[in-house]
Automatic annotation (TrEMBL):
EC number: 1.4.3.-
Modified residues (2',4',5'-topaquinone): Y434
Active site residues according to the UniProt entry: D346 (proton acceptor), Y434 (schiff-base intermediate with substrate)
Listed name of the protein: Amine oxidase
Post-translational modifications reported in the UniProt record: Topaquinone (TPQ) is generated by copper-dependent autoxidation of a specific tyrosyl residue.
BP-aspect Gene Ontology terms: amine metabolic process; response to antibiotic
Source organism per UniProt: Leptobrachium leishanense (Leishan spiny toad)
A Pfam cross-reference name: Cu_amine_oxid
Amino acid sequence: FSSTLYPSKGRYMASVFSDLTPREIESVHSFLVEQEHLKLVSVEDTFGKNSIFTMELHMPKKRHILNFLDKNGAKPVREARVVIFFGDQPTPNVTEYIVGPLPHPYYYKPYTLRGNKTIRYEARPMSYKEIRNIQQRLVEVTREFDHILLETMGYSFHNCSDRCLTYTDNSPRGVKSGERRSWLALQKNLDGFFLQLTGFEILLNHQSKNPQEWTVEKIWLNGQYFDSVEELVRKYDRNEVTRLKLPHDAESDIFATYIPRGEYKVRSDIPGPKVCEPQGKRYRVLGNYVEYTGWSFAFRSSTSSGLHFFDIKYNDERIAYELSLQEAISFYSGVTPGALQTKYMDSGWGMGSSNYELAKGIDCPETATYQDMYHLYDTDKPIRYKNSLCIFEMPTGIPLRRHYDSDFNGGFNFYAGLENHVLVVRTISTVYNYDYIWDFVFYQNGVVEVKVSATGYIYATFFTPDGIHYGNRVQQHIIGNLHTHLIHYKVDLDVAGAENSFQTLSLRYENISNPWSPGDYIVQSRLVHTQRSTEKQASFRFGLPLPRHLIFQNPNKKNKWGHPRSYRIQYNSHADSVLPRGWKEEPSISWSRYSLAVSRYRDAETRSSNIFLQCDPWDPSVYFENFLRNNEDIVNKDLVAWVTVGFLHVPHAEDIPNTATPGNSVGFFLRPYNFFDEDPSTASRSTVIVKPAKKDFSEVKIQRWTPTLTGQCVSDVSFHYNGTYLPD
Ligand SMILES: Cn1cnc(CC=O)c1
Ligand SMILES: [Ca+2]
Ligand SMILES: [Ca+2]
Ligand SMILES: [Cu+2]
């Protein structure tokens, strides 16, 4: 069966990968709430009770899915994986359950992580309830030093109307497993508050289930530490603290906003170019199934980690079973306690569900197909994130291939070119200050590009002179702290079948006698193929150069020229490790030891990270290193490539107001390498060939296989945007 010939069948097949529907989420929720002994209450009820935090599709086993896709087998049962916070227990904990079958569940069973490990209650991600309680507690604990806040910057938590404070917290929350104490940096609650630092940071212990018992353990003010509010007030009132005076005027706060200003010559009063589809769409989106020229694939958006692709086929032939985002981290350095403490692991901050409305014409072209997503994350009902995923075709503005064939006499023999059209699937996760633009790009020549671009606000800290060793001063009172972004992807390539081998290619110099000039020598490079037979041989640590080419192949399937049919992974990344191996929090990101690790496919090794590692990185419930520890044989086996990309970010003046995307994109390509017999884009009908029709070049003959452009290019619908993501 060819899914491209029968798209509705393609859609049915892809539905095995589709996210939970709102109805499925609701039925799982009601079913669990009916289980009285679970004592589940609403997430809005008293803090520290039992409640459902999140749920998402529990992916069936690969072999069951392949049996369905490839062998006409039964469609696997749909199940949900549900995270429940059990605060109301003698030993509070977090437990995951598998609930099924959907859409009418009647069973639930615990789902255990690494070695049946219990997930500590303190490992849970922050809930909105806890965030609101922190805000409330801050109002209470700052009451006694309100006069200091007012004197310093005229902002406070009390009767503040348009001069209120807010805060940014960081993670991990403590220094060892079982702790829950966070440094909270106070900021002016203005547009761009991430940059409105005030010089106050407060360490709040919020481990107790009773927010009234949450205590201030330390205060940092402009370089000085205090053990209590009482000590701060006493010393301040006795003039033993250097008094800080921040500007009080609104004009000086504009720097953190998008309001046009300044005299740089970037102004133009006419709108810029747009993407246009003069004769309609060349791709088809049916639910979570997409077809585009030779491509077809299924996608979903995991509530915990973001975009996942499955069953990626080119010309009806599978290239990858799965291509999925696993984790995004940013680890910081600095001198304020917040900077010293910040090691963000964004799936622990709801990265997968933080996909908000995309603005047509800015975030994606107006022509894009927009889809809603539904997530249940710290709510009692599924929330619709409208227009939060977009799919569009665009010209890249650079040819896919072209040649001008000169006659070296002022004329030409022919010109030929092929426009480079690609299909892009995009979501954007806004994880507090940062916006990550996730792109998966499908080219006409069998290439897939995976790319993340970082934008949004930097995480910054209050300027003190010693901070300059950890970043640049970017405003009067702000340091942009150095940090490294690392992103982890799972790439389950199935190249010409699931049984693959992994080979690397390097070059070595050889010095040989010149065959046509006796006594002369030639130095040149020679290919060195290295078969990597075990997981250890196929794991490449940061710090050591990656081999030149990384090739996944089926040695038993050859192309017309006798080469094993292969795909290459090619990096576009400037990543490095962020902590020494084994250091405290490092085992929770053990995947970040490797730019590339290749493991044998195992059903149990679905994910390299999870939402619990952020708050308990010291006793990780997933330990990626274990995927490699058994050092399995990887010759002619189902292989998975684990790819880490990233970059060092030393924020500079131009990161104000926001980090801009140019230069801040990293990723990798999946490129055919002897997979085909020639470039498959030769089948494209967009090729244009021009030849001289007369010897004197006074006429040319143009060959094309598509009509010359006609049709309307610009939509008559004016820009609109809504921006909410509220329950329906
Ligand atoms: C609060 N938070 C968590 N992750 C981020 C993005 C990276 O800096 C912010
Ligand atoms: Ca293994
Ligand atoms: Ca594989
Ligand atoms: Cu950054």
